Amino acid sequence: MSKMTTDQKENSDELPQNSILSKFGITALNPMQEEASKAIQSKSDVVLLSPTGTGKTLAFLLPLIETLDQNCAEIQILILVPSRELAQQIEQVTRKMGSGFKVNSVYGGRSGQLDKIDLKHKPAILIGTPGRVADRIRRDRFSLDSIHTLVLDEYDKSLEVGFENEMTEIIEALPRVKQRILTSATSEVEIPPFVGLQKPILINHVPEGVSQLIIKTLLSSEKDKLKTLDRALAFIGHQPGIIFCNFKDALERVSDFLSEHHIHHQSFHGGMEQIDREQSLIKFRNGTTQLLLATDLAARGLDIPEIKFILHYHLPPHLKEFTHRNGRTARMNRDGIAYILQWNEEKLPDFIQELAPESLNIEDQREATLPAPVEWKTLYITGGRRDKISKGDVAGLFLKQGEAQKDQIGVIEIQQNCAYVGVHAEVAEMLIQKTNNTKLKKKKVRISLI
Q1: How is the beta sheet containing 149-152 ordered, strand by strand?
Q2: CA–CA distance, 147 with 94 (Å, rounded to integer)
Q3: What would the mean pLDDT of 437-442 be, rounded to a whole number?
Q4: 328 near 302, Cβ under 8 Å?
Q5: Residues 273 and 132 occupy one common structural domain
Q6: Mean pLDDT of all residues in the chain?
Q7: 229 CB contacts (<8 Å, ≥6 apart)?
Q8: For residue 111, what pLDDT is reported?
Q9: How far is the C-alpha of 88 from the C-alpha of 76, rounded, in Å?
Q10: What is the mean pLDDT of residues 239-250?
């Protein structure tokens, strides 16, 4: 095999596990992660079942990083996921680990030309949606001989959204896979034969019923629950959360209502352009907005640990979807609460009644104040990882040239061709004036509000 290029691995020094864990603000693996790590290290096929938010991504990435060959310049691990957001998230987690191995993600809605550029020098780890990965394999005809590990993350969702044909095509094209790892937050989906599991080790940490979080119903005398949504949000208070709707049309109606009442929010649904979906999540993560109005597209794969509540404007038809939605909050031992907006005469599904949620009448909340306006804005920078720009470079530019204070700069996200920064609203315009059209590393960048 050819010697690994600097594109494949930037730093040949192996990082101890404790050093990696510290980057995620944890000191030790949880029991599920410990069990998964040992099973994966045994080289056996593994099926990992664990609730959303328990750290499955880190559970399989930590032992798999150790299997990578520094002297191999081809793809060694392939991770298939059901959504572009999950692909991006796993890529971010892998980069944050700082192993130095090259990682790229490919997915629908992203320029095929960008894929071609990224894959010119093969990553050690390739992450992608089945449709786009299958397309790249057909078009680029790159070698698959070095792929020794296949991960199907949230495999049940991939089967649910119709990726079976693409997954079959990909798996049949991998001649030397020695280990298969499947993950899911539910145990209700049968694993199809084409996956090719060989005597898998089953790690099941899925509890019966829903996760341990508080569930409450907010009662309203109005059948049109839109008329009591503002009182529900006033009752909940100023904290980050997701409002779930079942359909895009209903979501857009709720969005119009929130805008008319000057309640700042971001929308997230499958009908949006990819860039708009990405920016909605970025603004939600960095605190520019406190509310995300979403369909079930946001019920899986999004790791936003700051979420304090879920509000079901519409209830999903089944317990499985209800569980996945609620899994967005109360993650990794954090507190969380799920609210159900319910008309007084509306009968709750049996799977909700069995949970015996506490009912609260919010008609008395007329005098309550709505959530306070957000105090953060998001700046867009026309330079990213491809320009060798780091978070430290961005922070340094804003602190020195922009003359901002440390507490006025929030979350910085670096992507391939751009970067996003949460900044305090009162200094946003000043930062643009002082730093726009200046050099960051060797690239002249433009900086603007989104």
Answers
A1: 103-106, 125-128, 77-80, 149-152, 179-184, 46-49, 201-204
A2: 17
A3: 90
A4: yes
A5: no
A6: 86
A7: 254, 257, 258, 313, 341
A8: 85
A9: 19
A10: 92
Beta bridge partners of 445: 438
- Report yes or no on whether pTM surpasses 0.85: no
Least confident interval from 69-73, 123-127, 319-323, 437-441: 319-323
Indicate the pLDDT class of residue 244, thresholds 50, 70 and 90: very high
- Whether residues 187 and 220 share a domain: the answer is no
Answer yes or no: is pLDDT of 1 > 70: no
| Dihedral sign, Cα of residue 108, residue 4, residue 382, residue 424 | positive
The answer to whether residues 389 and 411 belong to one domain is yes
Query: Distance of CA 105 to CAs 63, 122, 228, 450, Å?
Result: 20, 11, 42, 24
5, part of any domain: no
Residue 29: inside a domain: yes
- Amino acid code (one letter) for 372: A
Domains held by the chain: number? 3
Average pLDDT over residues 412-441: 93
Residue 13 confidence (pLDDT): 43
- pLDDT at position 123 is 95
Question: Is residue 68 assigned to a domain?
Answer: yes
> What CATH number is given to the structural domain containing 421?
3.30.70.330
**Residue 147, CA distances (Å) to 131, 159, 183, 190, 202 in order:** 18, 22, 19, 25, 23
Domain boundary among the residues 204, 224, 258 is at 204
Amino acid identity of 117?
A: I
Domain range for residue 147? 17-204
Q: Is a pLDDT exceeding 50 seen at residue 263?
A: yes
Q: Distance between CA atoms of 207 and 213, rounded to whole angstroms?
A: 13
In this predicted structure, what is the pLDDT of residue 3? 41
Based on the fold, state whether residues 200 and 221 are members of the same structural domain: no
User: pLDDT tens-digit profile of 176-216?
Assistant: 999 999 998 877 778 889 999 999 999 998 765 444 578 88
CATH code of the domain covering residue 29: 3.40.50.300
